[in-house]
Amino acid sequence: MELVRSSGILLHPTSLPSGRLGDDAYRFLDWLAEGGQSWWQMLPLGPPDEFGSPYRTSSAFAVSPALLGDPNAPVRTQEVEELVARGPFWTGEWAGYAGPGALADQVRFEREWTALRTYARDRGVRLIGDVPIYVSDTGMDVASWPELFAHGEVAGAPPDPMNANGQHWGNPLYDWPVHRATGFRWWVERFRRVFAHVDMVRIDHFRGYVAYWAIPARSKTARNGHWRPAPGRELFHAVERALGDLPLIAEDLGVITPAVYKLRDELGLPGMVVLHWAFGGPPTNLHAPANHPKRAVVYTSTHDTDTTVGWFSSLSKKQQAATGLDSVEPNWSLIDMAMQSRAELAMVPLQDVLGLGSEARMNHPGQMHGNWQWRFRRGDLTRELAARLREETARGRRLVTNR
Q1: Which of 251, 252, 344, 352 is catalytic?
Q2: Would residue 204 show up in a list of annotated catalytic residues for this protein?
Q3: Residue 265 among the catalytic residues
Q4: From the candidate CATH numbers 3.40.50.10750, 3.40.109.10, 3.20.20.80, 3.90.1150.10, the one assigned to the domain spanning 6-395
């Protein structure tokens, strides 16, 4: 996949003023185009869990009906039949799991999304989606294909200096030998589905495709887990043979081994760098602009970090001074740094463009309650703000024409 030097905004549709598609989504696209942006990146679109997390979705294939701008739009039987014909692998399972009306909601989404995506393309904006590595233990996938999932162990992350107990996610792990025996069919269909909606995909927890942390199911923390190998190269090559070129972004943040970087580079995928982590550390700090590779995506912050204003406010005066950022508008200093980066793609969460503090943070990893709730207000996206963003984008040589 060849990236063109460009930039975009990270915003999940639930953070639109209405929390769903419809007029707010179209007005956001108008503002993106006015601001010179080429990408709209969002989080996973599947039905979220009871806490609102889109990373623990009840289906790797269905889309959340809560995103519908018009949930009561009429649906013809023929439209449902056409959806089933396009998605025979998963539609019957979703209908059986979610009940009457479930497929009609998927038809409504396809209808709304197709129109929205066409509108975006006409304005030079492409869409970036997100594939969580794991699914819910109570969702459709485990219920429909139980043989694809392992028993006795669950997913998580090992202890680190920030968390002595590690992270106990509790998601079911994959039975990789069974997936291999099927030619990775579930994964092929999963990627086929997501690429029907977006132009590029961020692969969450990319290191888990090389090796993953397996925790005994009865353990209350992740301390007693151990590493298990994953099929990595074999999996992605199988999907690529079935679907062709895969425009992917590898989420390679955290403590990453050489084997993970090797797989990323063999697949030709851009990784991620985050500017909150650019200050301090060894001279080899990958997040420092001097070390950014060209084939990378640079973020000011992410949905899992504090906003830039919130992060900067949490630093001591001495630490703030050491960053060299503007103490009045640290968010615009970091946006400028992202736009000037060598990385081919620059992504900025909307909260950083708006200059919002910690109250606008999207997620606190490891905290179940109070996440995924932020929305911007109608009237926030002014023409003056778009003009300033466009100017920064032009200075970074990221305006894309004739797309």
Answers
A1: 251
A2: yes
A3: no
A4: 3.20.20.80
